[in-house]
Amino acid sequence: MSRLPGRRPTAKIPAHRAESSVRRAVSHGSQAARGGTCPELPASPRSMARSKSLIRKYGKQVALSALLVAGIGVIALLGWILHLDRIITQQFEGRRWTLPAQVYAEPLELYAGLTLSADGLEQELRRLGYQAVDDPREPGSYRRNGQRIEFVNRRFRFWDALQEPQRIAVTTAGPTIADLRNERGEDVPIFRLDPLLIGSIFPIHGEDRVVVTPAEVPPLLPAALKVVEDRKFDSHHGIDPAAILRAAWVNLRAGQIEQGGSTLTQQLVKSYFLDNRRTFGRKIEEALMAMLLEVHFDKDDLMNAYINEIYLGQDGRRAIHGFGLASQFYFGKPLAELQLHEIALLVAVVRGPSYYDPRRHPQRARARRDMVLELMASFGVIEPEAAERAAARPLGVVGDAGRASGYYPAFLDLVRRTLRRDYRDEDLTEAGLRIFSTLDPRVQLRAENILAEELERLDQTRKQPDKKLEGVVVVTSPQNGEVIALVGGRQSSFDGFNRALDARRSIGSLVKPVVYLAAIESGRWHAASIVDDAPLEVKLDDGRIWAPQNISREFYGPVPLVRALAQSFNVATARLGLEVGLPVVTREFRKLGLAEEPPRLPSVLLGAVHVSPLEVAQLYNGFANGGFSTPLRAVRAVLDAEGKPLKSFALEVTPVADPRAIYQVNRMLVHTMERGTGRGARAYLPPGMVVAGKSGTSSDYRDSWFAGFSGSHLAVAWVGYDDNSPTGLTGSTGALAVWGRLMGSIAMLPWSAPMPEGLVEEWIEYETGFAARPGCGEDLVQIAVREGTRIPVKPGCEGGFLDTLGERTRSFWQRLTGGR
Question: Which domains does the chain show, CATH number per domain?
């Protein structure tokens, strides 16, 4: 047999011996698997040498691989740390100096003769967070003695002047202010209270805050935070190892994150950069970022950032961040004016704003507050006696009506949209602008309450528990176009769909004054002109027949325009509009301020115009302003962070219609309120108050509207369902009560515009339109018409020479005086 080179010959093993060897090997292997021992075979020198060779061969590779993995890990860790460091230096440095724009309401101006009682003035002071004291010496304090109120105002920079604190004494006489004097006893012609802060424009959706400087922070606040939340704040470098170990032990025993052990710096990191996930990885990231923060910023910076950033409550969809806003949210006054027991409550809320909510859980919040006071006394921050006195005080949390900082999301939405025409979003959210708005908090609060009450009443009469009516109220000052109140829904604090600006609904009969204005401006019609309220059919371009109906399903025959408008006759109005011409009517809408001209369809004559409530207010502004229109505005002035004026919104007045035609229509709208579809509002108004207005009902009773004005205010009210389903309400049975109650609650002037030159007054019969005179004729009304207008005289009422001479004398006197 040939032999392979380099190999030794193998010996043959008998089969029975080989079998025996296999059995022994299996036996030893199974014994070893059961944990037994097997005889050790001595290692041969050759195998030992081979092992050493393998170790020499692969040991270096293993070591190099381990070093490589460790190196990659270190590089990744350093990269992560550098990434976190970049986030901190860029985002935190930029954001801690970000100053949101602050929006203020219109300041209340006090002067002799103002309709404001002592109760009303005290309510305004309390709304602004003024505190009742025995002797007012500090800003934000007042004293009342019967009809006399003394107060010390806060220092405040308005858009046109800086007002320093001074002591003012106001004496009232019944419902009006009788006298204003300063501390030296001198007369004060007019005095402005500091305005109500109504919100901020901050970049993160839902967050709101009032940024405070260290000078505005009471010294007890940071001291209390250190004692309660982080006693080693001044000495640690972002983390407290002892607290972390203690928390880790608790968490390991529980098998989950139950205790944080976070320092104030870690809490700041979590609020600035991280979410609320409670994982071990997130805690490591939080700790690293906290240490990096301490490297880059000093303790004072971090404490001030914490005070401005930490979450402290919820107001609907608005998150309350920072102690500056929390002070106003809970106590109705600035942070600098808080007392010891109030500071302790805010510190107590830090641990759990929902759990320790002082409005929902007052007992729980009080127990936590008292514990904070005990800790402050134990660590020498305050004296024990001071802690006892503070613990005896009530929580002192104000209700919604008493907050110094109101929240009006619908109005703030209008402010944002107004400012975005002139400013970038970055300017509004970072530049610290101070925005002075036109909001009147007193009218706003009345509008919110009245709308909610009336909607609740209407819901009960509708007996549809699964559906809730919605509503809108807009109130303006027509002379200057200022929007003084705007409610976007029954839940006025809900920051969602703004119906006042974005709900485009059919306005029904609110369009009729526009139709009658177009007719009178043409010179062919006047208030006594006759229009036939008889069946009408119009063939449309698509072949369909349009046949309008009155809401009563009846026809009233020949009627004067004043009656057709007052009683809102659909058929008479449609016939009038068609005779005037659709292009003429639709152009009138555009002239009066609508952004787009409605389509030239017959249905437009009866309200098939879809606009928002704010646009309705703009449309009626031209009527209330005597033929001149001012663009509606929500902002009066803007200052920069240094108090320098940036922009003032000057009054713009544009002629939109013939003042003589407008006056004639307005006189007809006064009759609408006295004997037409608006007469139900008289029950809510002061006796003798002259107002002009019109109800509106869209097809199938889907929308209930009312719009009208006095000599000083214009208001629009809408009621309906969000899904546009029928409500069963007309303008007179729905929105009218909202409008009437609100206008009746406002100190307003009656409508009393002077009659333009070229017009005279005439008496006519309301039913027939015949000219008549007192003592001859039935159901007379007085209208305004152009000079020289010939109105058919009621048979039997023709006057003789003396009557004609009297009419001519009266006409001459009216032209001379320019009024009634």
Answer: 107-194 (3.30.2060.10), 211-401 (1.10.3810.10), 482-636+650-745 (3.40.710.10), 759-817 (no CATH)
